[in-house]
Design brief:
With 292 residues, the chain is α/β, with parallel strands linked by helices. The protein has a domain of 175 residues: Rossmann fold (3-Layer(aba) Sandwich). It is built from 13 helices and eleven strands. α4 links the parallel β4 and β5. The radius of gyration is 19 Å and the shape is globular. The model has no long low-confidence stretch (mean pLDDT 97). Bound molecules: NADP nicotinamide-adenine-dinucleotide phosphate. The site of NADP nicotinamide-adenine-dinucleotide phosphate has 27 residues, from α1 and α4. This is SDR family oxidoreductase. It is an enzyme of class 1 (oxidoreductase).
Length: 292
Amino acid sequence: MLLVTGATGLNGQLAVREFARNGSPARALVRDCAKARAAGLDRLAGIELVEADMRRAATLGAALAGVERVLMISGAAPDMAETQCTFIDACKAAGVRHIIKFSGSEPGSDPTRFRFTRMHEEIEDYLEGSGLAWTHLRPSQFMQVYLREAHDIATTGTLRLPFEDIALSPVDAADIARVAYLLLRDGGHEGESLEMTGPEALTMDDIAGHISTAIGTTVAYVRITPDERRRELLARGLPAYFVDALDEQTEERLKNPVAKVLAATHRMFGVRPTSFIEFLQRHAAAFSGKPT
Ligand SMILES: NC(=O)c1ccc[n+]([C@@H]2O[C@H](COP(=O)([O-])OP(=O)(O)OC[C@H]3O[C@@H](n4cnc5c(N)ncnc54)[C@H](OP(=O)(O)O)[C@@H]3O)[C@@H](O)[C@H]2O)c1
């Protein structure tokens, strides 16, 4: 049996949908079955939903029964390391053989300076010391992060970010899901760390230009300071912890103006890298302010 956790979230859901689309059976661990049903996961052929909490070993019996390999995902939250390390212990006790850790990286920057890359490294170390077979899937920034800006873009015609003239190489979460599906289905790649970025290094001027082309209206990149960004995110209602984390990430990114493009994982799994333009074409309605 193959298990995907975090199945109501962005990446877990895409991975589970990839299993269903390919007619491959899998189990999906969800914290709340009602939320999973609202997302339509209960209607996916071949997908078995099991409710459990990764942080509470006592709830994990049915989710881990007969499982050989797991794609381990939980969200960027203050308890991410505790959640995943508890879950690794439970996997070991239940006889799981191989954990594919959905990790994260900012190629070229210091992982210790941003709390989520720091936590991902802690979890990777813990998993490597567990005696289980492991693979780390390490994507860079998701293209989907720009959907958070879609409302502002649609209402103001501006993309307001504190990234000066640095470049980033965002990757489409749909590409990651295709790789994650193949990795979980077929196994192998034990003891490997698989970095993934998108196919192009893009400045925010490039990104605003691509959005303008996709929606047929000019979108201007407005350089704001990290303090302005902070105030705007807090005003949007984001939790202070998460805003602090993004501050750390921005500080680190500004030290590394050139983005790496790492295409080896896409190539190894035969997944064609989605360009930012292609991603925008799929999501043009959101960036135009139309209901999706
Ligand atoms: N943002 C980026 O650009 C980026 C780049 C690279 C890597 N990453 C990493 O990617 C990972 C996944 O991100 P994502 O966007 O897919 O996350 P997400 O959409 O926030 O989803 C997280 C999922 O984990 C589940 N979860 C959290 N705690 C749980 C628990 N105790 N028991 C069971 N399920 C639990 C959530 O369930 P509920 O729905 O019930 O809350 C949700 O399904 C994160 O670790 C992040 O650090 C992010």
